[in-house]
What does this fold into?
Amino acid sequence: MRVYILSTAVAPLSSGFGGGVEHMVIAAARALHALGYAVQVIAPTGSKAEVPDLRILPGLLAPTALTLDYDDPLPIEAAAFLNAAVRELAQQARPGDVVLNFSYDWLPLFVSDFFPCPLATLVSMGSLNRSLDQEIRRVAERDPKRLAFLSAAQALSFGLSGAMRLIPPGVEMARYPYNARPERAICWLGRIVPEKGLDDVFAVASRTGQAVTVFGVLQDRVYWEDLVRRHPGVPVCYGGFLKMPALAEMVGQFRVLLMTPKCFEAFGVVGIEALACGTPVVAYRRGGISDYVIDGETGWLIAPDDLDSLCTAVGEVERIDRAHCRRLVENRYTRNRYGAALAEWIETLAAGSAHSTVVTR
It folds into this structure.
């Protein structure tokens, strides 16, 4: 058996523009390789990743679904990376193989009916577009084993309330050093775009007087510069786009991580990265974040957009046991658990495929 992993089509791996999906793709490849699977990752031009077999294909990147209104038609580009990837997979994959798609796009869902081997999708975002929603629901009704989700809240956003496969991401604990005695105040981690809610981070810094350091790729530089201009003197600084291991080393130095999404968050990988370092999380209750942010145990969940409560919660993080934060990740969100869940899914797909023969590793 060969496992093909189709990466996000919106950005190269390790660019930061693909958000948590980049982490999930790389972690999946490493975990499955460690379990003995032959794995190939297919990703856009410019991708860089320490994975066993990285296949780079040219083509136009896809616009993120976050830029679309719910009723917008989906764009289709003949020269798109995703088209090239699907075409090559259809030619290369054999009946005993499995394709795991991490691209949040209509095309892989649609062609999964006609592929020479099982093509399954780990859905990485919540409901955003009518056409995508309809295709996800169609696949769920026709062959639910071809879908997996990051959280129950995410599956519910598509109107899927029955039993669905949940595969949350995981981190390699050895790469996230635990820090019991942080010396810095507040950090924020993510793509710097309006939907991540950095406006509220500036508000917290202004109201509490506590310094906030922002880490992440400057995806929307105009947005960031406008925030800085509108909030002169507020103690918020940009700490850069850090990669591992520097990122984990830095996040562990802070008393708390803020998560302030303005849109539905399917899971939020940055949250478990912070908890792995012992850093509690204060977050808006939007989507799958509530799976790991537990009030009074690993941080505080706040009603969305409630700035007063957000500021109050930041002042209460000293009540959180940092060792408990790390234990939660050790018990639920390790790379080994993530890999085991993916492997079980792969074997289920292969065993249920009308095309498959004897499945070996």
